Amino acid sequence: MISFGKHKDRGTGYSARSERVGPGVLVLHEFFGLTPSFKEKADRLNEAGFTALVPDLYDGRVASTVDEARSLAQSLDEDTVMARLGAAAEHLTANWHPRLGVVGFSLGAAFAVELAKSRDVEAVALYYGMGEMPGPRWKSPVLGHFAENDEWESHEYIQSFFEALEEIGADAESFVYPGTGHWFANPDVAEAYAPDAAEQAWNRTIDFFSHHLA
Fold this sequence. Notes:
By secondary structure, the protein is an alpha/beta fold. The protein is 39% helix and 22% strand.
């Protein structure tokens, strides 16, 4: 765990880095918090040649139920979160590598989209979440991973989101994983975890970042 930022944008997060400095990737966790699987994702990114940082949006708090997670998510102040993510991005680009990618999961996916609206991000990967529509100034390539059976995200909105990206000329591709539900890539949510789909999505994510951050 490390600290980054100063004063109002100060935060902590899990850092995975090595002597072989690679492009930076921010990993934005789901609304359960910075659970062990997100540290593992950062470690796997580092093994693949990236420098990864998972900002802790809940300052050490972790939810064990959906109701607890919903309460934690609702307690967030968006301006504070975005300031902290900006500081995390700056930590990676100023100290490690100028190229930056971001991968967001559910709640984190919405923040990943907002971050890409406010600063240069070379690649954005989204897992079962998107947030608000991209604006006309959007530049980042996007890779999306979505569940076939998802009560939290409508396929109509997913389609509209990616159509909007195509209309503004963004490089965008999305996949729907058969038989999966929300949180299918999170082993900390045992009832939703789909290991085969999660591994396929992960390999696509690594290839995506390798191509756009090289």
